[in-house]
TrEMBL record:
SUPFAM superfamilies: HAD-like. This is Uncharacterized protein. InterPro entries: HAD-like_sf, HAD_sf. It comes from Chondrus crispus (Carrageen Irish moss).
Amino acid sequence: MRLGNRGHRGRADPRGIFVGESSIAAVRAACDFFPDTTFPTDPDGNTAHWVYDALRAVRPAISTGYENVVLARWLSGIQKDDVQEKFVESVLEDWEAIKEALMADWEVSKDDLVEAFGHARDKWIEKDLDSWVNANRIFPGVADALNFASAPLYIITTKQTRFCLLLLERYGIKNIQKENVFGYGTGSKISVLKKILASPEHKGKKLVFVEDRYDTLEDASLSLLGTPLDLYLATWGYNTAETKRVAELHPYITPLDLPTFVSKLQ
C-alpha cells in the first residue's frame, strides 16, 4: 500500500506506520504547497526512508504540526551526507530562529502552512482513511485505560481538533467528551489549563497534566505555580535523553513512563 503522492516528486514510505503520520503528511504538504519541492526516492519509487528518519530525529524541537512542513521543505534541499550536521544538529540547537528565517525567505505565513498541512491530511483521509489511522498508531494499553478511567479526561493538543476527534472515534475511545478536546486554535496549552482549573466542577480538586514537551511543562510550572496541578513528562513521547535528565531534577515535574501512565488511569 502506497501512502504518498502518486505520480509526482516521489511517494511516501509504505512503512508509514513506523515513521509517523506527521512526517508523511509534512512531505505531502511540502510537495503540494511548494511546487519545486522534490525528495530523493528509493528503488521502489518511495520517498527515501532517511528523510523520515531525519524528521523523526528533530521532532522534539517541534511545538506545532505546521512546523513539520517547514522542516520537510528545508530538508528536501539537503544531501543525505549532510543531514546530521546541517539539519538535525541545527534544528535541535536553534529551531525557532531557523524557522522564522526560512518562512521569511519563502514569504509564507503560519496560517498558510497550517492550511497546507491540514489539507494534506484531509486528502490522505479521503483517499485512504485506514492507512492514515494506522500511521497515527496508538500506544499499547492507552485506549482501554482511557475508556476505563473514572476521572474526567481532557485532550490539549496542537493537532487540529477534527483530526483528534476522528482518531478517538476510530480507536473506540468513548470516554472523552467532544467538548473536552482542545485542538489547534483553541488557545495555548497554558491558557486551556487555566480555563479547566477555573471551572466550577474542578474546584478543590487536583488535576494532572501529562505532556511530552518539556518546555511546555516548564512554562506550566511557572505560570501555574500554586495551583492544584501535578506535572508529568511523558517519557515515551517526543523528548530527548537530556530533557528526561533535566525533568528528573525539576522540583515540580515528574518523569512518567507508559506502563505507569496506563496503570494510573485504570
